[in-house]
Amino acid sequence: MTAEERRAQLLEKAAIEFAQRGYHAAGTADIARATGIAEPTIYRHFASKEELFSEVAGAAAASLAGRIREVVPRDLAALEALLREEAASAPRLALVARLLQGGRDPAMRRVAQEALLSLEEALAGLGEEAHLGRAMVLAAGLLSAAGLYVSNERWTQAA
Amino acid sequence: MTAEERRAQLLEKAAIEFAQRGYHAAGTADIARATGIAEPTIYRHFASKEELFSEVAGAAAASLAGRIREVVPRDLAALEALLREEAASAPRLALVARLLQGGRDPAMRRVAQEALLSLEEALAGLGEEAHLGRAMVLAAGLLSAAGLYVSNERWTQAA
Amino acid sequence: MTAEERRAQLLEKAAIEFAQRGYHAAGTADIARATGIAEPTIYRHFASKEELFSEVAGAAAASLAGRIREVVPRDLAALEALLREEAASAPRLALVARLLQGGRDPAMRRVAQEALLSLEEALAGLGEEAHLGRAMVLAAGLLSAAGLYVSNERWTQAA
Amino acid sequence: MTAEERRAQLLEKAAIEFAQRGYHAAGTADIARATGIAEPTIYRHFASKEELFSEVAGAAAASLAGRIREVVPRDLAALEALLREEAASAPRLALVARLLQGGRDPAMRRVAQEALLSLEEALAGLGEEAHLGRAMVLAAGLLSAAGLYVSNERWTQAA
DNA sequence: TATGAATGAGCATTCATTCAT
DNA sequence: AATGAATGAATGCTCATTCAT
Fold it and tell me: Considering the entire predicted model, what is its pTM?
């Protein structure tokens, strides 16, 4: 397996682990096991756990912002449908939530700020409803991280 | 100092530590230092770090739900004002966010579920706007945990 | 309660705890709870846990030696009956075993040596059979400590 | 050094530490130092201190039973010679005594019961003298643990 | 490219003991 | 005579990371 393939695979598996457990609770041992490699191999592809997380979470935020930009021109219902789908099938939302809660390490905060800006920009098209849109995105992420989003139909139906 | 006083003081200081750093990153050493006591003294008042966190986060959710119930009969603007104030001056919002992201420990999840239900109930009075209200509460908590809420005036001004 | 009474009560309860769990596993908290007093009160009557143990175990060895001296003039069967009864109803045998295994602390070793000598002297009357008698006493102590003596009828019947 | 070699070395050094000090008093730090490795390395080879002890003590009992089986067909004097040699040169006897006194943890008790049975079976060939044989083995173990066996010539001469 | 073996730093927790009351 | 509150020192154990192969 080429280095690039391994790297991609590692990013994918790490995304799931970090999203489900959070930065601290997801150990490098868990990530290695999920990827099917030995622990030191992680360090062939990333300088540290923190770098791996930054990359994973940054990419999640960026691609999530992209998907949001696609549906925003439509309406709030479309945005909500997207979030529900995301929460059910991908770790992106949860990862963004984990990233925002990451802590006070300067390097990580920079990534978090950047993620927030990109989401904000993606939601700009909502105009007057931007406030609501942003709240929805973040709340969905939080609940997704908590594993409560999908099963809680009352909220999504209330819209 | 009586045991009860010490216990209360410990709850207060632990709330801040847990809110700022999250469950894993906030060490018992940090909490002890913030309280001005030795580490083992924590265990005279709480059986474990997990019990301390549960108590802290559960109480935060309950008292936050109380404050929300007070302002909900008014309007969304009142709710938002409350959240802004909370985020700026108290660790409650952030703690609830940390609690929801807590992990998969069954005991902790039960506390999280309970917290979520009490918040939901407190927001029930918003009627048609419940969805928005709930999203706001949760997003505020998330951003508060990230320490980004207050400094990000754009969002709050957008309302 | 007078100091002397408390002291005696403490010795009695500590004997049981030390016999059942051994020196290290029996905590001062356990002993205090069993005696119905607060932990610091132990230190009103004994300078340290080690002193308490020495006193308890030394007394056990002495009084056991006394009982042995009484039956030795008879025969081995009488000795064995005594040991069986001891193991079933008193912590003395187990305590002596714990004492002999106590470790390398010089102070404790001195007590252990003394205990061994007193037992030896008590068994002297057995004459040619002294070897067997001593082996019996010690093995009974070991098994008693392990909680296996009484329930193991095969051994005692084999005699 | 291969994992298997390290594991064997660890078993050997731990045997000595546990035999000399007992389960509680022998710290993982002591064992690591005696083996010439860092403390965490212990946990690469054994899941816990308790597992390490079980393995060490169980193996000691099994191999001791084997040696006993070899000499039992001869006579009691041969058995005693074996015990004296064991006590002087190996931690096996002491370990078995420590195991029997181990405490009330169910897992450990099971190992202790098993050890006792294997010793009993090994001594079965003594026929009428089985009682004496078993008492000797156990008493030797107790004294060996106490470090008193070898130096106490009176007992061994009494035979 | 990958890993088997190992570890320094740190973690939550326990324990015997002290001291002011 | 007794204890409620507290702690210094240590314990078993985990984790991200390194290095020789």
Answer: 0.92
